[in-house]
Write a structure and sequence with these properties.
alpha+beta, binds protoporphyrin IX containing FE
C-alpha cells in the first residue's frame, strides 16, 4: 500500500503502524535465518531467547533479529487511580495476548515496554519517590542522591540541536518477521489508541549477511540511493562496515539488570528487580564521508583502536577480554596518534573493572562487557513517522542512520560509556581534540538528533508501573 505524503507527514499514526514502506524490501532481499529455538517467558522484558551464534573471522558473533521498531508515545489517561487501573489492565491484557501469540525469540517477537521520567513524575510521583531505586555508585561519586533513571543529557559531541525527548513510554519490538513486528505495534498502539498518543515510529534492520551475499545494510542503502552505498562492503552487518554484535562485546545474560552488579539500591520492596535501563537515540551517519575520506586503516583505527593491524576487508575484529582497552591504553594511544577508537575508548567504561558475582550466583569476570546493545540501522529521516514533523525536521526521503538502543544497569552507567566515547574517560581528565578533528572516533561522521532515557520494569510490573500502589 503506497502511503500518501499526507499519511506520512503527521497523518494518523495508526495508519502507518503496520506499514512497511521501504522496509518491506528487507523481506524481499533476505530470508529470515533458520532458528529452531522456542523460548520461555523470563522475568526480564529485554532478554530474548534463541539468539543464534555464528563464527566470523574466528570470533563468536550474535545474530540479532532482522527487523526492529520503536514506538514512543505520551499518555491520554487521567491521573485518578480508577483511570490508571483501567489503563493498566487494558495494556496488560494486550501484552499477555502477545506473550501467548509469540515466543520471546527472533523467530517470534520481542516486546519491551519502557517508561520515561514524565510518566513517573505525573502519574506516580509519591510511589516513585519511595520505589525508584537509587544509583549507589553515582550517588557516591557525585555526593548527592542519584536515581537509576535520570534525564538524558547532550554529550560533548552532540550538536546543540540534539533534542532531549520527554515521552511517557517507548516500546521496542524485535523479530525476524516484519509481520510479527507490525502485529505487535497494532495490538498496542492501534487497538489501544485510547491510551496512547503516538509521538514517533522508528524502524530499521540489522545484518542478513552472515550467510553470504551483500547483506541488508548495503542492499537497503543501494535501494534507497544513499550516497556511498556502493562502497559498503558486501556482507557488512551495519552501514559502517564492521560487525558490532560480537559476543564478547555485549553484556551476557542478566548483567544489565538493575540488581546484578550492585550499582542500585532496590529498596525493601525490590519492586524493580529483573528491570533494566534503556537509552534511546537517533544518529545520522555520513556514509559517503566514511568511505571516501577515511581509508580502510583509518576506518579500522576509528572503530576499534589506533594502530590495529588486521587484513584488509576484515569486518569482525576480536574484542575479547584480552583485547579490551584500559584507560591507560587509550591515553597512551591518544598521546601517540592524537586519535581514539570507538570500541577502545568506551571499553574502560563498558567493561567490568573487577570480578563480580550476581545475586543468582553467576560469576562475571573482570573485563566482561556490561551494556546490551540492540541498535539497528535505519533509513528514517529522522523517524518513519513523527507527530511533530516540523519540530523533528521530518523528511520522507531516506537518510542513513542508526536507532541506538542499549540496556545498561543505570542512566549513569550509560552516561559513563557515552562520555568515554567522547574522550571523557571515567578515571581522569578528558582527552582534548582539535575542533573538527577526525581523531574523535566515529563522532566526526555521526550527528545525534534525539535522546531519552527510560526505565524497563520487570515483566510483572511492565504496565503502568507503581500505579497499583497507594500514593
Ligand atoms: C553509528 C553508530 C555506531 C556504530 C556503527 C557502532 C559500532 C560499533 C562497533 C563496530 C563496535 C565494536 C564491535 C563490538 O564490540 O561488537 C562497537 C562497540 C560498542 N559500541 Fe558502538 N557503534 C555505534 C554507536 C555507539 C554509541 C552511540 C554508543 C554509546 C555509548 C556505543 C557503544 C558501544 C559499546 C558500549 C561497545 C562495546 C565496547 C566493548 O565493551 O567492547 N556505540 N560499536
Amino acid at each position: 500500500m503506497r502511503l500518501t505524503r499526507r499519511q506520512l507527514v503527521g497523518g494518523a499514526a495508526v495508519s502507518v503502524l503496520g506499514a512497511g514502506g521501504i522496509y518491506k524490501l528487507v523481506d524481499e532481499l533476505t530470508a529470515p535465518p533458520k532458528r529452531a529455538a522456542t523460548g520461555s517467558l523470563r522475568p526480564e522484558q529485554h532478554l530474548l531467547d534463541g539468539i543464534r551464534v555464528v563464527r566470523d573471522n574466528g570470533t563468536e558473533v550474535l545474530v540479532p533479529p532482522l527487523h526492529h521498531e520503536v514506538v514512543t508515545a505520551t499518555l491520554r489517561v487521567g491521573e485518578r487511580p480508577a483511570e490508571l487501573r483501567g489503563a493498566r489492565e487494558e495494556l496488560e491484557d494486550a501484552l499477555r495476548r502477545l506473550d501467548e501469540s509469540f515466543d520471546p525469540t527472533p523467530g517470534g517477537l520481542g516486546v519491551t515496554v519502557a517508561w520515561g521520567i514524565p510518566y513517573f513524575e505525573r502519574y506516580v510521583p509519591a510511589q516513585a519517590e519511595r520505589h525508584l531505586p537509587l544509583d549507589l555508585r553515582a550517588t557516591a561519586a557525585r555526593g548527592e542522591p542519584v536515581r537509576v533513571l535520570e534525564d538524558a543529557i547532550r554529550f560533548p559531541s552532540d550538536p546543540d540541536t540534539t533534542r532531549l525527548d520527554a515521552n511517557d513510554l517507548a516500546v521496542v519490538l524485535r523479530s525476524d518477521s516484519l509481520e510479527h513486528v507490525a502485529e505487535g505495534a497494532k495490538a498496542l498502539f492501534d487497538e489501544l489508541d485510547g491510551l496512547f498518543r503516538v509521538t514517533s515510529i522508528r524502524k530499521g534492520f540489522v545484518g542478513g549477511g552472515f550467510e553470504g551475499g551483500p547483506g541488508l545494510p548495503k542492499q537497503m542503502a543501494l535501494a534507497a540511493g544513499i550516497q556511498g552505498a556502493e562502497l559498503i562492503p558486501d556482507g557488512a552487518q551495519l552501514f559502517l562496515g564492521f560487525t558490532s554484535t560480537q559476543k564478547a562485546g555485549l553484556g551476557p545474560s542478566r548483567i544489565a539488570n538493575l540488581e546484578t552488579l550492585g550499582y542500585a539500591d532496590l529498596g525493601p520492596s525490590g519492586y524493580f528487580v529483573h528491570g533494566t535501563h534503556l537509552h534511546l537515540s537517533h544518529l545520522f551517519e555520513d556514509v559517503a564521508a566514511w568511505y571516501q575520506v577515511f581509508d580502510f586503516q583509518e576506518r579500522l583505527d576509528t572503530t576499534f583502536r589506533p594502530g590495529l593491524d588486521v587484513p584488509r576487508e576484515t569486518q569482525t575484529v576480536a574484542q575479547g577480554m584480552s583485547e579490551a582497552q584500559t584507560e591507560e591504553h587509550v591515553r597512551r594511544d591518544f598521546a601517540r596518534h592524537r586519535r581514539i577508537g570507538h570500541a577502545g575508548s568506551v571499553q574502560p567504561a563498558s567493561r567490568l573493572d573487577r570480578d563480580t558475582i550476581g545475586p543468582d550466583g553467576t560469576r562475571y569476570p573482570k573485563g566482561t562487557a556490561v551494556p546490551q546493545r540492540a541498535d539497528f540501522n535505519t533509513l528514517d529521516n529522522p523517524f518513519f513517522w513523527s507527530a511533530e514533523p516540523i519540530r523533528d525536521k521530518f523528511l520522507d526521503e531516506p537518510a542513513a542512520g542508526l536507532h541506538f538502543v542499549v540496556f545498561n544497569p543505570t542512566s549513569d552507567d550509560f552516561r559513563r560509556t557515552r562520555l568515554a566515547m567522547d574522550g571523557v574517560l571515567p578515571g581522569g581528565p578528558r582527552l582534548v581534540f582539535e575542533t573538527g578533528s577526525r581523531g574523535r572516533g566515529f563522532n566526526s561522521i555521526l550527528a545525534t538528533t534525539h535522546r531519552q532515557n527510560f526505565l524497563v520494569p520487570p515483566r510483572t510490573h511492565r504496565s503502568f508501573p507503581l500505579s497499583e500502589l497507594p500514593a
